[in-house]
Amino acid sequence: MRARGRFAIIFFVASLVASASLLAGACDSKRGSVERRRGSQAAVEDETTRSLSPLPERELSPALAVVRARAMRRAAETRGLQWRAEPGMIELTGWEYGTRAREMTGALGGDELRSLSRLAVAGGLLPGGTDLAMLAAGFTASASSAIYSPLDRRVLLLKEGGKQKRPADESLLAHELTHALQDQHFELLRLLDTRPYSFDRAEAVFAVVEGDAMNVQRRIEHGEAWSRLTPEAVAQFEGKRFGAAGGELGALFPPLLTETFHFRYRDGSRFVETVRRRSGVRGVDELFRRPPASSEQVLHPEKYFAGEGPREVRADEARFASAGWGTSAATPLGEIGARGLLLKAVGRREAERAAAGWGGDRAYLFERADASALFVWQTAWDTDADAREFFRAYNALQGSRGGTPQDSAAASPDDSSRTWREGELLTLIRVEGDRVSVLRGHELDVRAALELASGY
Questions:
Q1: What is the pLDDT of residues 17-54, one digit of tens each?
Q2: What range does the domain containing 390 cover?
Q3: pLDDT: which is higher, 132 or 304
Q4: Alpha carbon distance 63, 67 (integer Å)
Q5: Residue 312 lies in a domain
């Protein structure tokens, strides 16, 4: 995706949609559609493209066709993959482009994306009323002028001002075409079609997808100079380049989403570059066959190389069901999710340090027939000290939200349990050894759920 006059995200919101479309794995009412998605990429495409309107038949201008040919050649040479078919590319009017963005949102799981919205809102992770499906369609249509669509297997270009406009930079088009190469060789939609759904793992996969394309683009732009940078310098470079775009996004989106934006490019580029220095382009190919299991493995490549995956953390859903609570959504948020949340309340270094001890987690949205919602987030940490550090940082987050502490005046963040009130809602944070639990809902529900959530 190429933003007008600035860098923007490729698949930023589209990936949220694609990831959330798999959230149905946690919803009993959606299990039928989930099972139908377990087949090949062709089966996935068949199901998701039924609601898409046909794209117009429109030839590229001669100038744009020349640029595409050069970008195709450079992308293939730099990435070390051969084209299996000529990638499609089409220019769309503003109305056509916006329509396609809305259709992609629906086809890739608008309903499930709204389930993820409810989970995030119930936990206070996103502002009340947030609808990620609407944000997805609106952002894609308004902030980007090019995107690779795995549903259409084409690069979609926005025709501005009614005139054909050649891409400002060949390397940016090569970036999009790298996604087409990835799709031809590794089937991007199938790569996302995993069970059970995990927001954390999906973010790790997209860090590979974006980091790979970003490194192809930079090698085209900077040549051998890019290969001489250390992986850490790569991350610093991308952090600075995307800082301005992140600042613009920060005015519209909470830190949880803007940090995800940076993660896919900044940390994804460093991770893929680390693998490429170690194992060459065939090592990068292997990332698509054996992608990282968590954002932690992207942030700390040594954990990927060592095969250190996340710890399994689960609530006893049967106990909640016996008390009348149905599971509407469940997913790990990962180290990047924990960091993004904390950034709203503490500085970057503190947020990174507090999240770095992450070992595993799972966030749940439980709902009841009376329309009550209950958020339960259970986390595991590498050490008791790491758990305490996260406990303190999360309490700082609650204070920044304007919550009122319900503990005695003598209580401190070093106690094992803190409660905060926000209107009718109560948030309870509890640390036990290397575990931290966060429960949010109406007071009586939270008190009762504390016993249901114990012993995980």
A1: 444 333 333 333 333 333 334 445 555 455 555 568 89
A2: 317-453
A3: 304
A4: 6
A5: no
